[in-house]
Amino acid sequence: MAHSACMRFEERWQHGAQRHIRHRVRAIFLSDVHLGSHFSKSEQLLDFLRQHDAQSIYLVGDIVDGWRLRSRWHWPKTHNDVIRELFAAAQRGTRIVYLPGNHDAFARDYPGIHFAGIEVVDQVIHIAADGRRYVVTHGDRLDRMTQVPHRIVAIGVRLNAILFALSDSWNRLLLALGLPGWSLSKWARHRVKRGVDYLGAFERQITQLAVAYDACGVICGHVHHAAMHERGGVLYINCGDWLDSCTAVIERFDGSFEIKTWMDGRSTSSRAAPLGELQEA
User: Fold this and answer.
1) What are the residues facing 219 on neighbouring strands?
2) Ramachandran area for residue 132 (φ above 0: left; ψ -120 to 50: alpha; else beta)
3) How confident is the model over 173-189, as pLDDT tens digits?
4) Is residue 139 packed enough to be buried (19+ CB in 10 Å), middle (13-18) or exposed (0-12)?
5) Residue 281 lies in a domain
6) Tens digit of each residue's pLDDT (9 = 90 or more) over 226-277
7) I need a surface site. Which of 34, 141, 233, 236 has the fewest CB within 10 A?
8) Residue 213 belongs to what domain range?
9) Does residue 134 lie in a domain region?
10) Which residues contact 138 (CB under 8 A, 6 or more apart)?
């Protein structure tokens, strides 16, 4: 198959009465799914996974929300379905790399372990199709705000849950009126974080990883803000989340990257060409 054809190859088949289209990509990067939270958009993620085939899938932290599960158990069928879909992809030959974050830090006790074909690492070097190197890590260890006392974090978690509940109710009203959605929780977080230069400080810290490991860029999560831009000669890529934005990062077969937003089966994307000792992927 020609190289250009690989980039946009779509496999079609019949599944019952419904036709599915699977888009082939070289790699998928997902972060901040927060399975176990009432606000995880697991249905949208499941739809995304079922419509994409990848040679590699990177789970870039906070896939499971251990913080929420400790306070109140919530695990609906769609959360199980997401896990099953990932296991099924591993059985089909997809390499799946799990890089735990602060909400699923319990998995950091098992580095190098394989669970049903899913390998656990703290951070990794991803080598793109064009040979360029990218550090992949969740990013919480480079976030100074994660060092605040646990009781303050607990208050923030509760406030965040309230914001998500209000945001979901507001969006249902907007959609019922035929108006575009708007995220109150994302707006509030960005207002606070912008006020203390949170995102800028985080980006400056984490892009130093790429410099330290002689890489062209860094792919991370943690801050729930999908982004892809150059900072100090390093390509900074953030996967976003599956609470508000429903975003994933994909690598195409030419080594270029895209941020895909996946809401109710509708895809929008923004892409950028990549810039010109950890384990290597």
Assistant:
1) 136, 237
2) beta
3) 656 676 665 565 555 55
4) buried
5) no
6) 999 999 899 999 999 999 899 999 999 999 999 999 976 556 666 654 443 4
7) 233
8) 3-271
9) yes
10) 31, 60, 61, 62, 99, 100, 101, 102, 220, 221, 222
